[in-house]
Design a protein that fits this description.
The chain is an alpha/beta fold. The protein is built from ten helices and 21 strands. Strands 5, 6, 7, 8, 9, 10 and 21 form a seven-stranded mixed sheet that branches. Strands 12-19-13-14-15 form a five-stranded parallel sheet, with helices on one face. 46% of the residues are buried. The N terminus is likely disordered.
């Protein structure tokens, strides 16, 4: 058995389920982010459900996943699918040189550089490899890919590189607590696993903000989606799709959906796209006939029981409201950091919850809280020596894929300095 199971692009998972199923969406999203081909078979009536051995289309056994080897899984969890694909594993070592939390661009970059430079490296990821970048249908401004590349393919290549150099990747694992003592960085995972390492890099990224509307939680994955929705685009043929957000993620998604949807509407709070979206995307959006931009507008209501049926949006200047029918609402409105564990561990965060590092730790001339060393913290080091932060979770980071990759590589340079000094 190799250090990390290889992705098998011959695998094609068949997913049977009903439209508007949040659990079916979670599976599709996971497989899309993991670059695993799948086929979605929508069950439209009870007769079709009974044909696959399920009583009706509302049955708790749905969705059903069928694998090429004949295995059938009823309403599986992501962890069960991970195990079936051969990707779920336990740590192989009792202690590592470097533990990386988060397998987005920053975490994968750190894994490639750490493992290739001889560090015993482990990566812990709560969901799927690639983070939010993996949900991007196409990244066109990343160096070296003039024709663009999907986020899933880019991060799958990075995963393969990291594993080639010997990094271990633990999927479907979530860190819940950290303890930091002299020479040890201990992470406790939700399933009880303990990760011990001499250094650690937090690259856990961010989660998309919610709209904060009634009925929202019930409709997540059932018409309301967070992120660019790469797994859902092929199901939107002839539909009217709405995207909330005025950044690059929303802009890229709108162009991706425009190839299949009848109409794509971007709902933007600001006066213009130009301040928050790359110029090449702005030009392309305004030259695409079936993409429309509503500025100074916000969604104020979600309508639907088991799945989204309509939305209401309001003009922020005039107060005028309009309700439109739709089954598709994608939300890309920035986010908050995955760093809840930091408060208990004594790691300094800013008011928004981002991890503070390096020079930003100094308040005037005051030494950072809990800082025990004579030297100043390295640029990406938190107030806990040997604990670094990279990518979107870090205070002051540039929210771009290339920047995250650069910070991941840079963090490993400081890891080496820390280990050499200790």
């Amino acid at each position: 058995m190799t250090n990390e199971p290889q992705q098998n692009h011959q695998i094609r998972v068949k997913i049977y389920g009903r439209s508007g199923s949040a659990s079916a969406y979670a599976i599709r999203d996971f497989l899309q982010r993991s670059d695993v081909p799948f086929e979605w078979i929508e069950l439209k009536d009870d007769e079709q459900a009974r044909a696959i051995g399920v009583q009706d289309v509302q049955h708790a056994k749905l969705p059903v996943c069928a694998f090429p080897d004949g295995t059938r899984m009823e309403c599986p969890t992501i962890r069960q699918i991970t195990e079936k694909l051969g990707w779920f594993r336990d740590p192989s070592r009792s202690e590592y040189d470097l533990a990386i939390y988060g397998a987005g661009p920053a975490g994968l970059s750190a894994a490639v550089y750490g493992a290739s430079e001889g560090l015993k490296t482990v990566v812990v990821e709560r969901w799927a490899v690639g983070g939010q970048a993996a949900s991007s249908p196409k990244i066109e401004n990343y160096l070296g890919f003039p024709a663009g590349i999907s986020g899933a393919e880019l991060t799958e290549r990075a995963r393969e590189q990291a594993c080639k150099f010997g990094a271990e990747i633990l999927l479907a694992r979530e860190g819940v607590r950290g303890e930091f003592s002299t020479g040890k960085r201990v992470g406790y995972l939700a399933d009880g696993t303990k990760i011990v390492a001499r250094t650690a890099i937090c690259a856990t990224g961010i989660r998309y903000h919610r709209l904060g509307l009634p009925n929202e939680e019930e409709l997540i994955g059932a018409g309301v989606y967070y992120g660019a929705g790469a797994s859902e685009a092929s199901f939107c043929g002839g539909e009217h799709v709405y995207l909330v957000g005025g950044g690059n993620s929303a802009a890229q998604a709108s162009l991706h959906f425009s190839a299949v949807a009848r109409k794509v509407m971007m709902i933007v709070r600001d006066d213009t796209l130009k301040e928050s979206v790359s110029a090449y995307l702005v030009d392309r959006i305004y030259s695409t006939k079936n993409v429309e931009v509503l500025t100074n507008t916000e969604v104020v209501a979600l309508i639907g029981n088991r799945s989204l049926e309509a939305i209401t949006f309001r003009n922020r200047k005039t107060g005028e409201e309009q309700t439109v029918k739709t089954r598709w609402l994608f939300v890309c409105i920035g986010g908050s950091p995955h760093a809840e564990w930091a408060a208990e561990a004594g790691v300094v965060r800013d008011q928004a919850g981002y991890l503070v590092t390096g020079p930003d730790l100094f308040n005037g001339s005051h030494t950072p809280p809990n800082w025990p060393l004579d030297r100043s913290p390295y640029y990406l080091e938190t107030n806990i020596p040997g604990l670094f932060a990279a990518g979107d979770v870090r205070h002051g980071s540039v929210k771009r894929c290339a920047s995250a990759v650069g910070e991941g590589a840079m963090a490993v340079t400081f890891v080496h300095r820390y280990l050499a000094s200790g």
